[in-house]
């Protein structure tokens, strides 16, 4: 099974509400610029209370950074990695995300990447978010019995590799499907740094005393 258990009604309603608010906000950002739009204006345009915007996203940065694909993929990975190797789990989690995200969400993804690329603070926030996702993935890997250090490294490598894949796709104009680029990023991880399976040699074996 390639996905986590289905969301309940409350979760589905939350996702719909967040998608609506985010899409309205992206329209405002495209029209006026990210820095010129306030939470109050987002709430008014989306016809929701400011409290709702803060409850769902936490901040204006959060309105841009939220991505349903991340939620779906992380939930699926956490579920799948209990019963299979990490790279197999991430491949299947990406397929689950691809099935769950529609074309409109992918178009909004391009818009978000443009906004992020134009704002230094947003770029810094993305770096923090990617590190946090890597930690979450690492914890899920470690829960399956993997050595904690190895799990932490693997989680961060997966998060960073996928981020590079997304960035390459964006820098290439965002043409075509994102998913082959993400699968290629996973392939690079699977091949290792030298394109071969990793060797279990100790650094101390090559150290001169």
UniProtKB/TrEMBL annotation:
It comes from the Bacteria. Residues 38-57 bind DNA. Keywords: DNA-binding, Transcription, Transcription regulation. PROSITE patterns: HTH_TETR_1, HTH_TETR_2. This is TetR family transcriptional regulator. The keyword Metal-binding does not apply. It holds the Pfam family TetR_N. GO terms for molecular function: DNA-binding transcription factor activity; transcription cis-regulatory region binding. Coiled coil: none annotated. The keyword Membrane does not apply. Residues 15-75 form the HTH tetR-type domain. PANTHER family: HTH-TYPE TRANSCRIPTIONAL REGULATOR RUTR, MYCOFACTOCIN BIOSYNTHESIS TRANSCRIPTIONAL REGULATOR MFTR-RELATED.
């Amino acid at each position: 099974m390639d996905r986590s258990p289905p969301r309940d009604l409350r979760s589905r309603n939350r996702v719909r509400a967040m998608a609506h608010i985010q899409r309205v906000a992206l329209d405002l950002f495209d029209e006026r610029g990210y820095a010129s739009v306030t939470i109050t204006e987002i709430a008014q345009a989306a016809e929701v209370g400011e409290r709702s915007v803060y409850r769902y996203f936490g901040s204006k940065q959060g309105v841009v950074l939220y991505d349903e694909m991340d939620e779906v993929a992380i939930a699926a990975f956490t579920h799948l990695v209990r019963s299979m190797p990490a790279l197999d789990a991430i491949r299947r989690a990406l397929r689950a995300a691809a099935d769950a995200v529609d074309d409109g969400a992918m178009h909004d993804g391009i818009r978000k990447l443009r906004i992020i690329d134009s704002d230094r603070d947003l770029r810094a926030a993305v770096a923090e978010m990617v590190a946090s996702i890597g930690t979450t993935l690492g914890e899920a890997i470690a829960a399956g019995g993997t050595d904690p250090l190895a799990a932490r490294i693997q989680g961060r490598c997966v998060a960073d590799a996928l981020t590079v894949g997304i960035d390459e796709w964006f820098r290439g104009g965002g043409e075509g499907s994102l998913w082959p680029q993400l699968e290629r990023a996973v392939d690079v991880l699977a091949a290792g740094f030298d394109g071969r399976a990793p060797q279990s040699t100790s650094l101390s074996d090559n150290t001169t005393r």
